[in-house]
């Protein structure tokens, strides 16, 4: 939340500015939501922003998760969600005293609004308001007479101090009306001017559909929502917008919107489920490129390289070009299958050698870019950049040169009906920096971006591109790493499996899989975890 967030003093309803800077509601101390004074309205009055969890699944454990995580507000969606009268009452009970309870009511009606407030909500968000008369009806439904038509009652209030609640509720309850149609936009100024309206809340998806701007939401849509915000400000009230996820919520907060959605349970649950199921399923219409393949594997003298060669041999590759800077270093490997293994001298940073290799191996259908270098160097704790330059030259530019040289070969063989692929040996550190070897991470991040770009450019030609991203592997590259390491043979097995099912991004081992999951769920927390592995003092 913004630096001007307020804290609340319970029982007295007194609001004061927190001079220690931005804090969420939990850190400031939970507000008793049944007393006079509404921290939501106080934050808005001071120009602050509230981030709400938007819940529609009707699941009480999810409510507990949201308030337990320290949500500033929780909005129960009774319009499109599956809350009923009983679960809504119970959910508000879980929220009270720990966060601000809000309800997006099912409709602009006295019963829907009254029941939400009787449950203990401190504010209602009223959908599909298009005229000033509809806004007045929403306000009236939220206010006790003589200001409105709200009926006195509600189990939660009656078992408490109803006299104290009822005498302050008209000032306490926040009323937000949703602008989500072209007609609502046209009447926004008149709606904002209705006494008792505290916020114009933009229903972004419905508004975009109404404007014919869905799903792209281009410049016309953006101009419209900014105009609604300006209208609200001119009327002296707040403006909020449905954002659905925290990245957009952060940006809308920057723009001055005062109620944004930082998490949403329906899409937040459904999208990961769909994505994970799709990722686990073998790629449709995928053909395993290994049986009968002519493979070209770099860096086969040590580490993962020779194990990869053996996996390809076991998978039925017809021929494998095995490369090293010094072919003598791979003599023992070649001796294991001299009829199928072809040694070749190659330095992937030597453009002439790379070009010559592609010309000599015009039958290649599978390119495995395994060669790499890791100096185990941090970014700032060493003098000079020569190590970082070599890592970029080998890991990024060397891989780029190999792909550029072999792309015409692979395209031609794919056009001839042969399954063709590229495998890039990366690291989970291509997704997240480990400070102890920060310059390697930067080069691997560049190589991962290269992999994504090559995947897109070569897809139409029928060439698939794979990224293999293990954690620490027990090779010479990680000899100084103190921690669990997976055997290189296991990484080679993962490469073979990925090629067989068409899995594009692969995270072999517990370490890589755990970091990948952390990046999907909590990237900031994952970064902080790895940031603890700082480089030791460097000498020499």
Write the layout of secondary structure elements.
Layout: E1 6-9, E2 14-17, H1 25-28, H2 39-45, E3 50-55, H3 60-68, E4 73-77, H4 85-95, E5 100-104, H5 110-118, E6 123-126, H6 132-142, H7 155-158, H8 162-172, E7 174-179, H9 182-186, H10 188-192, E8 199-202, H11 204-211, H12 219-234, E9 238-241, H13 246-254, E10 259-264, H14 265-280, E11 294-297, H15 304-314, E12 319-324, H16 331-335, E13 341-345, H17 351-360, E14 366-369, H18 386-415, E15 420-425, H19 438-459, E16 463-468, H20 488-501, E17 505-506, H21 509-521, H22 523-531
Parallel strand pairs: 3-4, 3-10, 4-5, 5-6, 6-7, 7-8, 8-9, 11-12, 11-14, 12-13, 14-15, 15-16, 16-17
Antiparallel strand pairs: 1-2
Give an overview of the whole structure.
The chain is α/β, with parallel strands linked by helices and 540 residues long. The radius of gyration is 30 Å and the shape is elongated. Strand 5, helix 5 (110-118) and strand 6 (123-126) form a beta-alpha-beta unit. The strands form three sheets. The chain has an eight-stranded parallel beta sheet. The two termini are 46 Å apart. The protein has two domains: 49-266, Phosphoenolpyruvate-binding domains (TIM Barrel); 294-531, Rossmann fold, CATH 3.40.50.720. It has helices at 25-28, 39-45, 60-68, 85-95, 110-118, 132-142, 155-158, 162-172, 182-186, 188-192, 204-211, 219-234, 246-254, 265-280, 304-314, 331-335, 351-360, 386-415, 438-459, 488-501, 509-521, 523-531, and strands at residues 6-9, 14-17, 50-55, 73-77, 100-104, 123-126, 174-179, 199-202, 238-241, 259-264, 294-297, 319-324, 341-345, 366-369, 420-425, 463-468, 505-506. The protein has 22 helices and 17 strands. Helix content is 44%, strand content 15%. The longest helix is centred in the C-terminal third of the chain and has 30 residues, at 386-415.
């Amino acid at each position: 939340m913004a630096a001007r967030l307020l804290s609340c003093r319970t029982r007295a309803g007194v609001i004061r500015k927190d001079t220690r800077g931005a804090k969420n509601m939990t850190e400031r101390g939970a507000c008793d939501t049944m007393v006079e004074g509404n921290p939501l309205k106080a934050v808005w009055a001071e120009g602050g922003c509230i981030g709400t969890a938007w819940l529609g699944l009707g699941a009480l454990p999810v409510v507990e998760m949201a308030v337990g995580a320290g949500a500033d507000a929780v909005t129960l969606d009774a319009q499109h969600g599956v809350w009923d009268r009983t679960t809504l009452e119970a959910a508000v009970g879980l929220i009270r005293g720990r966060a601000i309870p809000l309800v997006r009511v099912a409709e602009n009606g006295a019963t829907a609004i009254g029941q939400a407030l009787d449950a203990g909500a401190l504010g209602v968000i009223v959908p599909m308001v298009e005229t000033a008369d509809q806004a007045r009806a929403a306000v009236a439904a939220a206010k006790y007479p003589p200001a409105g038509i709200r009926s006195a009652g509600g189990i939660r209030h009656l078992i408490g101090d109803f006299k104290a609640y009822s005498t302050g509720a008209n000032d306490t309850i926040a009323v937000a009306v949703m602008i989500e149609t072209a007609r609502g936009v046209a009447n926004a100024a008149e709606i904002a001017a209705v006494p008792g309206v505290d916020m114009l809340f933009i229903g972004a998806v419905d508004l975009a559909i109404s404007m014919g701007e869905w799903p792209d939401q281009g410049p016309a849509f953006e101009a419209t929502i900014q105009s609604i915000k300006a209208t609200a400000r001119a009327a002296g009230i707040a403006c909020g917008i449905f954002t659905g996820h925290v990245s957009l919520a952060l940006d809308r907060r920057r723009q001055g919107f005062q109620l944004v959605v930082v998490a949403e349970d329906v899409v937040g649950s459904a999208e990961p489920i769909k994505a994970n199921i799709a990722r686990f399923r073998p790629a449709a219409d995928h053909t395993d490129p290994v049986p009968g393949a002519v493979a070209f594997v770099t860096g086969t003298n040590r580490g993962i390289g020779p194990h990869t060669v053996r996996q390809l041999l076991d998978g039925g590759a017809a021929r494998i070009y095995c490369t090293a800077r010094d072919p003598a270093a791979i003599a023992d490997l070649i001796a294991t299958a001299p009829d199928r293994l072809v040694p070749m001298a190659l330095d992937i940073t030597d453009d002439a050698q790379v070009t010559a290799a592609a010309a000599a191996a015009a039958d290649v259908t599978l390119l495995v870019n395994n060669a790499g270098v890791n100096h185990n160097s941090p970014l700032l704790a060493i003098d000079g950049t020569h190590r970082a330059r070599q890592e970029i030259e080998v890991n990024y530019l060397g891989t780029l040169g190999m792909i550029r040289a072999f792309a015409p070969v692979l395209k031609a063989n794919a056009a001839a009906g042969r399954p063709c692929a590229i495998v890039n040996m990366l690291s989970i550190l291509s997704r997240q920096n480990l400070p102890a070897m920060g310059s390697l991470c930067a080069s691997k991040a560049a190589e991962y971006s290269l992999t994504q770009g090559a995947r897109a450019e070569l897809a139409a030609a029928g060439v698939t591109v794979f990224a293999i991203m293990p954690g620490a592997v027990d090779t010479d590259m990680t000899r100084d790493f103190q921690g669990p390491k997976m055997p290189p043979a296991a990484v080679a097995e993962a490469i073979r499996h990925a090629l067989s099912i068409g899995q594009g991004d692969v995270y072999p081992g517990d370490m890589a899989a755990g970091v990948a999951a952390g990046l999907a769920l909590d990237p900031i927390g994952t970064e902080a975890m790895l940031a603890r592995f700082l480089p030791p003092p460097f000498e020499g």
